[in-house]
Amino acid sequence: MQEQKKIILISLVTGIVLMLAKFAAYFITNSNFVLTDAAESVVNVVASSFAFFSIYLASLPRDANHPYGHGKVEFFSVFIEGALISIAGAGIIAKATYGIFHPNEIHDLVIGAVIIGATGIINGSLGYYLIRKGKSIPSLTIEADGHHLLTDMVTSIGLVAGLMLIHFTKIGLLDSILSILVGAYILFSGYKLIRRSVGGLMDEADFDVVANVVKFLSDNRREAWIDVHNLRAQKYGNELHIDCHLTLPYYFDLNKVHEEVSLVDRMINANETKTELFIHADPCLPKCCHYCNMPDCPVRAEPKTIDIEWTMDRVIRNKKHFEQE
């Protein structure tokens, strides 16, 4: 968690410095187009500040009021960032539209382009770093902040190109028109972050996580694990929660059942992601025999005749595999 705080702090300090540079470029050029980037940089600073607090909150241990921990605050952090980006985009569009009817004189566009270009390079480099770190830690907040900075880099590239176009064509109206286009792009980026955060807050299924869990269980399948079904997986911050039903031979005693369930827990937690499992043990039925791998089973009703592949579609259903045939 200290690494997450350090990364967000770097992003926050960098954002403040770049924000000042962009506003300096705006005051030099008096360009609405430059103001679009400066306004978004304010969002970067505010979002990074909230992200720093959310990571601190997500690191707090579970308590009676938060039995699943505080990791969901990261989704709220992403929502705030997306909302701020959307507000910035809408504000940029409104001001640029006003500028079409009430144009203002712009100047020193080359100096502004140099400043914006430099900030774009820094944001792009930092954004790639945050995305890589966000995926490896993992942290949705840091990853979202990285995507935001990449959006800022793309915006800066468009700004530099647009400023040069205005400089060489001397068409002042382009300043407002290009600002509207960039504002629309920023607004769409904010919508995507909001959509992702709402999905997390509503416990929307993360099929990539589920698919990885199913593949891991399938690759490490033991003979006693007759089938796995009703599997659900959800991420809260850097923690993963898995619920599933595991069908075991009905003649296993409680100690043996506990041993198999604990083995699943240990195997999944052998990787870097902290995982909490709730595994319900189901007894096998005679109809399971035709796909059961247990050797020398003392109660087998019929020989094994088929292999049933553990796929995501099959494993997430709340039915034993023979009931799905």
TrEMBL record:
The chain crosses the membrane at residues 7-29, 41-61, 73-94, 106-129, 149-168, 174-194. Pfam families: Cation_efflux, ZT_dimer. Residues 8-202 form the Cation efflux protein transmembrane domain. Keywords: Membrane, Transmembrane, Transmembrane helix, Transport. Signal peptide: none annotated. It is found in: Membrane. Residues 224-284 form the Cation efflux protein cytoplasmic domain. InterPro entries: Cation_efflux (IPR002524), Cation_efflux_CTD (IPR027470), Cation_efflux_CTD_sf (IPR036837), Cation_efflux_TM (IPR058533), Cation_efflux_TMD_sf (IPR027469), CDF_Transporter (IPR050291). It is a multi-pass membrane protein. SUPFAM superfamilies: Cation efflux protein cytoplasmic domain-like, Cation efflux protein transmembrane domain-like. Belongs to the cation diffusion facilitator (CDF) transporter (TC 2.A.4) family. This is Cation diffusion facilitator family transporter. It comes from Mucilaginibacter ximonensis.
